[in-house]
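Hey L., structure's done. Input below.
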Amino acid sequence: MSPQSSAHPPLTQEEVLALLAVTRALAAPFDLPTMLQTVTAAARQVLHAQRSSIWLLDKDAGELVLEVSKDLAQIRLAVGVGLVGACARDRVLITVPDCYADPRFNAEVDRQSGFRTQCSMTLPLIDHAGALVGVMQVLNRTDGVFDTEDEPLAAALAAQCAMALSRVRMMAAMVEGERMRQELELARAVQLSTLPAALPTIAGYDMHGIFLPASLTGGDTYDIAQSEQGLLLVLGDATGHGIAPALSVTQMHAMLRMAFSMGADLETAFRKVNDQLAATLADSRFVTAFIGLLDTDSHRLRFLSGGQGPILHFQAATGACLSYKATSFPMGAMPIQTLRPPVVIELAPGDFLCLLTDGIYEYEAQGGEQFGRQRVEQLLAQHCAASAEQMAGLILAAVRAFARGAAQEDDITMLLLKRVA
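Output:
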């Protein structure tokens, strides 16, 4: 059964808190052996298992390598062999209540270790880019057998573990060679891999996103993705430049995707991610972020904004451009005590939703003048017949003409959504 099946009940409050605790633990800097020990310990605790193991993919050899086991040295299995190999080959979660009754089960590991496997759950570890990192396996639930009710929690845990393992591998690779150059190049690759590879196709809507970092890595991010709760729209901007802000927005991005994939509503996702960032980010760091959900049937957009603004809504019928401020302080600055209700926008035919980071509004010309909001609003009014991609190009061209050769000092990110007239 797929771990993303919509038939699964939503996670309980306790399970969500347990996952967030794991996310926080995995955010710490680790070497690979320590990270693997942390991952397997988390799997045993969260899924109530007697044993857990991580099999890392050796892509060149086409094999899975057992890296963490209590009583075994390194073991290799070809992809396709056993439950672990089948999981890697098919990239699906496999739950088996009686392993010895399953023809795919390979009992050789039991014979070598002396351990008796009764039931198991085997999960593919897939990173943000969709690449298989390895396989996680948990054995023998302490109070029964694993079933479909365990699968949403296991899938969410596997997603966090895959992200953590990818991060550790990235950091290990950065130590080699030209440290600073590799650090920035790899961070850029990780950051770009979290951006949507392709935008959703939705009748009646046109959308476009663009990310132009000021250096190899940037502190901005954006997302447009379909979810059960609606079309998810995210624009984020972390303080500073370089690898630290890039990892901050990547962390926020991953937690948001996890929260919405588990069925969280807008308010719950915003609060939980904010509070988790407040617990993990350094005191001097935070992320300004717009998070919205669009019902493409009713054309109603509900959003919360942690320090991100202005949010521009161009109304085609009147030619007016409404501007909305942030609904709360930047995400991660402090835990939320009271959350304001989401802002609701009705998108009429021809309307634009325009989300831009400070790199546009605060772009300075040679004399120090900033591009500002008014110029953006004028472009929206003058070129309201343009597509979302064309509008992004017009804004970027206007900024560059205004700058007259002044260097880009801040990341530029744009997310434009238009309801087609």
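The radius of gyration is 23 Å. The domain at 13-173 is CATH 3.30.450.40 (Beta-Lactamase).

-- N.
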